[in-house]
From TrEMBL:
<dbReference type="GO" id="GO:0009451">
    <property type="term" value="P:RNA modification"/>
</dbReference>
<feature type="repeat" description="PPR">
    <location>
        <begin position="295"/>
        <end position="329"/>
    </location>
</feature>
<feature type="repeat" description="PPR">
    <location>
        <begin position="396"/>
        <end position="430"/>
    </location>
</feature>
<dbReference type="Pfam" id="PF20431">
    <property type="entry name" value="E_motif"/>
</dbReference>
<comment type="similarity">
    <text>Belongs to the PPR family. PCMP-H subfamily.</text>
</comment>
<dbReference type="InterPro" id="IPR002885">
    <property type="entry name" value="PPR_rpt"/>
</dbReference>
<dbReference type="InterPro" id="IPR032867">
    <property type="entry name" value="DYW_dom"/>
</dbReference>
<dbReference type="InterPro" id="IPR046848">
    <property type="entry name" value="E_motif"/>
</dbReference>
<dbReference type="GO" id="GO:0008270">
    <property type="term" value="F:zinc ion binding"/>
</dbReference>
<feature type="domain" description="DYW">
    <location>
        <begin position="611"/>
        <end position="703"/>
    </location>
</feature>
<dbReference type="Pfam" id="PF14432">
    <property type="entry name" value="DYW_deaminase"/>
</dbReference>
<dbReference type="InterPro" id="IPR011990">
    <property type="entry name" value="TPR-like_helical_dom_sf"/>
</dbReference>
<feature type="repeat" description="PPR">
    <location>
        <begin position="194"/>
        <end position="228"/>
    </location>
</feature>
<dbReference type="InterPro" id="IPR046960">
    <property type="entry name" value="PPR_At4g14850-like_plant"/>
</dbReference>
<dbReference type="Pfam" id="PF01535">
    <property type="entry name" value="PPR"/>
</dbReference>
<protein>
    <submittedName>
        <fullName>Pentatricopeptide repeat-containing protein</fullName>
    </submittedName>
</protein>
<dbReference type="GO" id="GO:0003723">
    <property type="term" value="F:RNA binding"/>
</dbReference>
DNA sequence: GTAGGGTTAG
């Protein structure tokens, strides 16, 4: 019966019968229960008042009074609930239990254990299954380990171990105290698990990284003939997402389809998340589109899936659709959006979102703060990122990592290491990612010994096992310092499977330091790993050119032509007054092409007296085009910089983003352009930032 | 009359 209907009946009784028999206790109980379930405080008070005037609120109606306590605590009115409880002349185990549940659900776990003691000592009531499961839950949610153990003893004494609710609460307690062995033990010894047990154990294992045990529980559940409900699948999709195991994810998805389980908003979010994290954006989009009733979370999940798969623009566009459907974004949504802006270096869009975030009071959330810092760093605005960091109310490991790696990518090694020391001083625990940033910083500063100290001692002291990324940083560190043989020896002597990135790091070092022999060996190795790797060919060709081995250059070009290997087209873009202008290397699409080319020619002429010599050897482009005179002046970053110089005020810094590594020629040209125009020019390439100012670059000519 | 499990950011 609906609340209104119940109330209608009550009103009817009120008018029909005299005030002595307003409505029966059964009615009152039914009505109060319904109101409690709905959390309807307003109507609840009315009914309470009716009960009082009809003298139904007398003390001998314990069940009815229990319902009142329940009503108020479910409406978040704990003080009122407590007053009703305290005035009872007769209370039973349910009165206690209801009040305890009230305190538990309103976040006062500690209060529950106090009530529990009073119940036993004052009223001499021995706990039943309701009380025990509530108290056990309070111990887990309040992290009250000691009390939890005492309750465990009581459970054994009471013989309620086999009660489903009690057993589940006990399992949650084990999970909370990270006693996964205890969980396994209970699973073995206690038969007859219901779906809730399976699901909470599944979640427990997942939260503690027991992935294989989680899978075991899932298969045991299926083997037991329990098909698994949407909660089970939400958990298991979460596992696939964490493992980034697309194959497993698809298997689970098939299983779910076969079981006939219908999508709900939780499930669709979890599946979207799984496909997103496993790198299959099409799967994520398909699931999202096949479920109609989305909420903030599921919208955020599809935005995140797009972000994770580098579909940054798509994420921002989808957000418009989300707003159009009147779904209100929360802090997670803003974090994803800001990170998408970071991916595009879309400062204008990022600033707009920043304003919205502050206006709505989302700025205090760590996730949002981190995303803002990321956005400003990736858009090249170091000072804005730094200011945000200093003003943050709460920080987490990600915040610190973000600042350290942000400074490192901008070539600010000293700053990065200062922040790292600061982090240690405030006893924030560094993690795997932290040390990647730290080792990068050491690389910029050429601090070899310090780098090795972090790798070999500090990391191990903290209990972190160095991984491929750290070792690659060390290769870069040695390579940058010109210790190429050491770098090679380090790679040969470290028992790890090196990837393309690591070898390319060494090859790049060989290139910069013109170590032709080692470079050739490394390049050959790289080409064995991937015979069509354009990046390797470019580096190899650059190296040949630098030592003037023109035959080598010609050979590589011929090879590329024969194999029809094409370089990814060079793209640069820059944001001017909220509009993004994109330039391709041999671009003539831009409406102002003629003026832009004229500007480039003028800039190059201006820097010639400063010693600029066009370097036709440093890039490997489409051969025919490259042979044309003046081709280099059409490089996309030069076009973008020229355009920005034309369109922005004379003091404004220029920000350009490009999809490839910046080439030698553009690098030396931009250094000089920054000098003659007295402008700061910040270029974000695939790997790092180059901040050109007064004739030099923040990368100190090593990238 | 009272008690248990779920989705989104790096």
């Amino acid at each position: 019966m609906s609340t209104r209907a119940l109330l209608h009946v009550s009103a009817f009784s009120l008018s029909q019968v005299n005030s002595q028999r307003l409505f029966s206790v059964e009615y009152a109980v039914k009505l109060l229960k319904k109101l409690a379930d709905d959390g309807n405080f307003k109507l609840g008070k009315v009914v309470h008042a009716l009960l009082v005037v009809s003298s139904h609120a007398s003390e001998d109606h314990t069940i009815q009074n229990n319902c009142l306590i329940n009503l108020y605590s479910r409406c978040g009115q704990l003080a009122v609930a407590r007053r009703v409880f305290d005035r009872l002349s007769q209370r039973n185990v349910a009165s206690w239990s209801i009040l305890m549940a009230g305190y538990l659900h309103n976040g006062y776990a500690w209060e529950v254990t106090k009530l529990f003691k009073d119940m036993i000592s004052v009223d001499k009531i021995f706990p039943n299954e309701y009380v025990l499961s509530t108290v056990l839950s309070s111990c887990s949610s309040g992290r009250l380990l000691h009390e939890g153990r005492q309750c465990h003893a009581l459970v054994l004494k009471s013989g309620l171990m086999f009660h489903q609710y009690v057993k589940n609460a006990l399992l949650s307690l084990y999970t909370m105290s990270s006693d996964m062995e205890g969980v396994l033990e209970t699973l073995k010894s206690v038969p007859g698990l219901d779906i809730i047990t399976y699901n909470s154990v599944l979640k427990g294992f997942l939260d503690h990284g027991y992935t294989s045990e989680a899978l075991d529980v899932f298969s045991r559940m299926l083997a037991d003939g329990s098909a698994g409900d949407s909660v089970s699948y939400v958990n298991i999709f979460g596992l696939c997402a964490r493992l980034k195991d697309l194959k497993l994810g698809k298997q689970v998805h098939c299983r779910m389809l076969k079981s006939g389980l219908q999508l709900d908003v939780f499930l669709s979010s979890a599946i979207v998340d799984m496909y997103g994290k496993c790198g299959e954006i099409s799967g994520a989009r398909y699931i999202f589109d096949s479920y109609p009733n989305h909420n903030v979370v599921s919208w955020t999940a599809i935005l995140a899936a797009n972000f994770q798969n580098e579909c940054f623009e798509e994420a921002l566009k989808l957000f418009l659709r989300m707003e159009f459907q009147d779904v209100v974004p929360n802090e997670y949504t803003f974090a994803v959006l800001l990170n998408s802006c970071a991916g595009l270096s879309a400062l204008g869009c990022g600033k707009t979102l920043h304003a919205r975030v502050e206006k709505r009071g989302h700025g205090a959330f760590v996730v949002v703060g981190n995303a803002l810092i990321n956005m400003y760093f990736r858009s090249g605005h170091i000072e804005a990122a730094r200011a945000l960091f200093s003003n943050m109310i709460s920080r987490d490991t990600v915040t610190w990592n973000m600042i350290i790696s942000g400074f490192s990518h901008h070539g600010l090694g000293e700053e990065a290491l200062d922040v790292f020391q600061h982090m240690l001083a405030v006893e924030e625990q560094p993690n795997y990612v932290t040390f990647v940033g730290v080792l990068l910083a050491c690389g910029h500063l050429g601090r070899i010994e310090e780098g090795f100290y972090y790798l070999q001692h500090l990391m191990r002291d903290i209990g972190l096992e160095p991984g491929l990324e750290h070792y690659t940083c060390v290769v870069g560190l040695l390579g940058k310092a010109g210790k190429l043989d050491e770098a090679e020896n380090f790679m040969r002597s470290t028992p790890i499977t090196w990837d393309v990135v690591a070898w390319r790091t060494l090859l790049n070092a060989c290139n910069v330091h013109r170590n032709y022999d080692l470079g050739k060996r490394v390049a050959e190795h790289l080409l064995q790993l991937n015979p069509n790797d354009v990046g390797t060919y470019i580096l190899l060709s650059n190296m040949h050119a630098k030592v003037k081995r023109w035959d080598g250059v010609a050979k590589i070009r011929k090879l590329l032509r024969e194999r029809n290997i094409k370089k990814e087209p060079g793209l640069s873009w820059t944001e001017i007054r909220n509009e993004t202008h994109v330039f391709v290397s041999d671009d003539t699409q831009h409406p102002e092409t003629a003026q832009i080319h004229e500007k480039v020619r003028k800039l190059l002429a201006d820097i010639k007296p400063l010693g600029y010599v066009p370097d036709t050897t440093s890039v490997l482009h489409d051969v025919e085009q490259e042979q044309q005179e003046g081709y280099l002046s059409y490089h996309s970053e030069k076009l973008a910089v020229a355009y920005a110089l034309m369109k922005t005020p004379s003091q404004a810094p220029i920000h350009v983003i490009k999809n490839l590594r910046i080439c030698d020629d553009c690098h030396s040209a931009l250094k000089l352009i920054s000098k003659v125009t007295m402008r700061m020019i910040v270029v974000r390439d695939v790997n790092r930032f180059h901040s050109f100012q007064d004739g030099s670059c923040s990368c100190a000519d090593y990238w």
